[in-house]
Amino acid sequence: MTFLPTEEQRAFTRSLDAMLTASDTPAVARAWAGDDPGPGRALWGRLAEAGVFALAVPEAYEGAGPLPVELAYAFVELGRHVVPGPVVETVATAALLAGLARRGEEGPGKRLLPALASGGHMATLSLAPPGTARPPRLLDADRADLVFVVRDRALLLTPAPERSLPSTDPTRHLSHPTPTGRLLAEGPSVTAAAHRARRWAMLATAAQSLGVGLALLDRTVEYALIRSQFGAPIGSFQAVKHRLADTLLSLEFARPLLFGAAAALAEAEEGGGGPAVDGELAAAKVAAGEAGYAAARTALQIHGAIGYTEELDLSWWLRKARPLRDAWGDPASCRRTVLEGYPDTGP
After folding, report:
1. CA proximity to 51, closest of 109, 96, 116, 97
2. Strands 146-151 and 154-157: what pairing?
3. Total Cβ atoms within 10 A of residue 226
4. What's the mean pLDDT in 115-142?
5. Is residue 155 within 8 Å of residue 310, measured between CB atoms?
6. In angstroms, rounded to a whole number, what is the distance separating the alpha carbons of residues 247 and 251?
7. Is 14 left (phi over 0), alpha (psi -120 to 50) or beta?
C-alpha cells in the first residue's frame, strides 16, 4: 500500500494552502478568540466553497464523500494554518447524520446535511462514550448554528449553553452541554452512528495535530537559522539540531499512521474493514497528538521567552497542540484502544 498523494490530492492540498495563506489565519484566530467571530465565519464560507465539509457528506445529500483520505489531507492544512472553530465537530456531525440515514433515520440528515456541506450551518457535537453519565464539553457552542448532544442512545438538538469555560487554547470556547433538547432520534441506530462519528472526529483531530506540529517545526527551524548566540546561529548547535531532528522524526512517524488509518476508514465506509479500524485510528491519534505536543515543547524551548508573548503568531500554534492531543481521545484512552485490538501482545 502506498500513502503518496495522487495528483488530484496534491492539487487540492496546494489550493487549500494558498487560500488559507491569503486569509491571514493567525489574525482570524485572534478575532475568534476575542469577541469578533466575523472573520472566522467568512473563512468558514471559503472552506466550504473549497469542499472541506462536503468530504464527510454523501453525494446523495449534496456532498462529495465519504472521502476520509482527502479529509485527512485537508485537516493537516487546517492545523498548519491554525484555523479556529468547530471544524472537527461539524465533520463529526455530518458523519453522525449520514450514519443515521444509512440506518433508516433519514429525517435529520435529509434536512441538515446539505447545509453542513455548503457551510450554511456550523455545528458542534458532544458524544458521551458508552457507560459515561456526563457528556464531554461542547466546543464553540456560542458560535455554532446547531448544537447536538448524544447521550443514553439519544440524539438531541439542544440550545446553546449560556456560560463558557476556560481553555488552554483561547480559540476554543468550551461549555457544558444543556441537559434538555429536542429529540431527533434514539435507539441502536444512534449508538452505531455515534461510533461512526467518533471515528471521523479522531481522524480529523489527528490530522490537525500533525498539521500543528509541522507548522511549529517549520517556524522553529526558521527561527533557529536567524537567531544568533556566541556569534553563530543557534541552529548550528548540536543540541538544537538533535532536538529538531527528534521532533521531525516524531512527526514523520505519525504521518503514515494517519494516512493508514484514513485508508482503513475509507475501506470500512465501503463495507470492508472491521474492529481493527478503531485501533488504527487510535494509534494515529496518539502518535500525531504526542508528536504535535512534542513539537510545541521544542518550539517553546528554542524560541525562549519570546515564545510566550501574545504578539508572536507562534503562540496560537503552541496553545493549540495540547488541547488537540486530548480532544476526541486522550493518549491513555487511545493506547487502551490499541491494546484491546491486539489482546495477545501483553507479557
Report:
1. 116
2. antiparallel
3. 9
4. 88
5. no
6. 6
7. alpha
Average pLDDT over residues 150-162: 89
DSSP state of 34: T
- Each residue's pLDDT tens digit, 50-103: 999 999 999 999 999 899 999 999 999 999 999 999 999 999 999 999 999 876
> Which uninterrupted H or E stretch holds 138?
strand 138-139
Q: Which helix (H) or strand (E) holds 151?
A: strand 146-151
Query: Measuring CA to CA, how many Å separate 254 from each of 249, 285, 288?
Result: 9, 9, 5
**Using an 8 Å Cβ cutoff, are 258 and 281 in contact?**
no
Q: Tell me, what amino acid is at 60?
A: A
3-state secondary structure of 305: helix
Take residue 95 and report the three cell numbers written for it: 458523519
**What are the residues whose beta carbons fall under 8 Å from the beta carbon of 17, sequence distance 6 or more?**
77, 80, 81
Q: Which residue has the cell 500525531?
A: 288
Distance of alpha carbon 119 from alpha carbon 114, whole angstroms? 9
Q: Is the pTM of this model over 0.85?
A: yes
